[in-house]
Amino acid sequence: MNKNLIKKKYNEKLEILKKYNRKYYNDNISVVTDAVYDLLKKDIIDLEKEFNFLKSKDSPSNLVGFKPSKIFKKVSHKVPMLSLGNAFSEDDLINFEKKITNFLSINQKFEIQYSAEPKIDGISASLIYRRGKLFKGLSRGDGKEGEDITENLLTINDIPKIILSKDFPKEIDIRGEVFIQNSDFEELSEKFANPRNAASGSLRQKDPEQTKKIPLKFIAYTFGYEKGLIVNNQSDFLKKLTEWGFKTNPLNILNSGVKNLMKNYQEIEKKRADIDFDIDGIVYKVNDFAMQKRLGNVANAPRWAIAHKFSSNKAISQILEIEIQVGRTGALTPVAKIKPINIGGVVVSNATLHNEDEINRKDIRVGDTAVIERAGDVIPHILSVDIKKRLKNSKKFIFPENCPSCGSKTIKEFNKITKKVDAVRRCSSEGYYCDKISIEKLKHFVSKEAFNIDGFGKKIVENFWKLKFIKYPQDIFKLDYSKIEKLDGWGQLSVKNLIYSINQKKNISLERLIYSLGIRHIGLENAKLLSKHFTSFSKFKNLSVQSDYEDLLNIDGIGETQVNSIKSFFSNKTNIRVLNELEKVLVVKNAIQNSEDGLLKNKTFLVTGKLNGISRAELKSLIEENSGKTVSSVSKKLNYLIIGDKPTKKKIENAKQLRINVIDQAEFMRMLNKTS
């Protein structure tokens, strides 16, 4: 994969998204459809997942909404208004439910009930009530801070101003959607592009009297902060909302099982045109509040809810060429060059073919007419080809047996864990022998999450490589600046700035150095784990003379796949030379151990046997939340062995020999001042 192209595409996508957000949240203008927006957002997030060096503070995975406008006073949400993860297929829903059952340690035969509610395309609002009176109304804003739009919200007839019900909570943050019905929008269509824009523009008027003239509606669907709410699930909460005078979505149903969710989804999609308000999908929420609380949140989205969006974008084009790109890890990635087409407002000229097996399975050939789907891949992918339109002289595509860059044999590795041959074919060269791999390694070395050298971008890496200024990472710190100064586009000032940038990065943390090496399967998170384990560069580098790598398996989060990659890295003499040379020119900061205070601070845990009512993932989460650590084997580093049903006897025996505390689940929970 051409990393320069990926970075360029990523930045382009990010800038487009930021422009959409500015127009959408501040100017009340939808420049694209929700489907196009959602797919762009998913493209960016998927791209970040595949290429760790891309993620930035502007990533949509870090943001909810947009910064509140300066027109209105900013107010912090007591409970953040989170966004939802998106599902686009039945498989996405299956994975969503599987993650829930695994996290909660629920038998997969157990039917989880979901509240299924069509997702209104409107404006989110937060209504704060105190002692039955509407106290304040806020917009979503960026999820953490919203705009105080109380006066404008008070003009909406659907919003109760005073609630006298005895069971109404002492204080509660009622959340819902402000929208305009399609039938009411007809009179406003000359002023606004769509009902959503009309609702947003009206809510953010300086003069509430102007807002009052717009037929705004409000549907309530959840709550944030509450004090005194006596309901146990979402369906009962919706019933209470109607009793208190709120309107709720009439199409909301209680459902269970992915098949039933899909059936309801298809039925609603058929009815979509007949519904008097815009919807862009269906929101599924785990109905039980206790389950919701246990599941908690991931990043800026809850684990217990997901938005199943309508439609994906497809188009038809012709495959002009199949190009093989070589990535940093040696992976050979086929990319189809296609006749440029517009898919959802974006001009597409490339489509991923994933791997050799995918090409063979779909029998994809140069010249084929293909259905291109833009539904969240790093770049769009080919859904299928039209055999009937195939050219008479077309030939099967033969995947190269030799690397197109260095000529080395290409291989498909046998995965010991899956017991299958990998789908990806790789260049067999090691270290820096293959030019394409070397260039990609150097680009990774200077990337944002690694050394992050200002002014040393991918184009400069490629240029300096061609000029033979650099070949290995250490060469970056030994550049002959007198030669650079003579190059076109370079002068004394630009060279001076480059020298400064490089010198600034000679001091680096251990985790970023490990990440910068580009070891296969070692992303930034794994690099953090390794840095905490080794604490110093010298200890990490000592792996080159260490034959026993088994200790690495005790690092929670590091598995056999990662260990094998580390072994492979240290078995290469060129890599060892690179480390030795880097040691001469860098100051590597030792890893700082976690100093957060918590009930389990400086304590390590290992679980053996089946737990009751809680999964290992949830238990691990509890341990880490309280500053503890988990390990994967019994050793002197272990403080507590937690035993469940049918534990491994050998682990218990080893723990007793090492005088390690052996406790059951109930004892562990008491350590956290909880009941079992």
The amount of helix comes to 25-40%
- Average pLDDT metric: 86
Could you name the CATH topology of the largest domain?
Answer: D-amino Acid Aminotransferase, Chain A, domain 1
- What's the CATH H-level homologous superfamily of the largest domain? DNA ligase/mRNA capping enzyme
The shape is globular
Under the CATH scheme, the architecture of the largest domain is 2-Layer Sandwich
Could you describe the largest sheet, including whether it forms a barrel?
Answer: 5 strands, mixed
Report the span from N to C terminus.
50 Å
Give the helices and strands, then pairings.
Blueprint: H1 3-26, H2 34-50, E1 74-76, E2 85-87, H3 90-104, E3 113-120, E4 123-130, E5 133-139, E6 145-147, H4 150-153, E7 171-179, H5 182-185, H6 195-203, H7 208-212, E8 217-227, H8 234-243, E9 253-256, H9 258-271, E10 279-286, H10 289-295, E11 297-298, E12 301-302, E13 305-309, E14 313-326, E15 332-343, E16 346-352, H11 356-362, E17 369-374, E18 381-385, E19 410-411, E20 414-415, E21 420-421, E22 426-427, H12 435-446, H13 458-466, H14 481-485, H15 492-504, E23 507-509, H16 510-516, H17 524-534, H18 537-541, H19 560-570, H20 573-585, E24 587-589, E25 604-608, H21 616-625, E26 629-630, E27 640-643, H22 649-657, E28 661-664, H23 665-671
Helix pairs in contact: 1-2, 12-13, 16-17
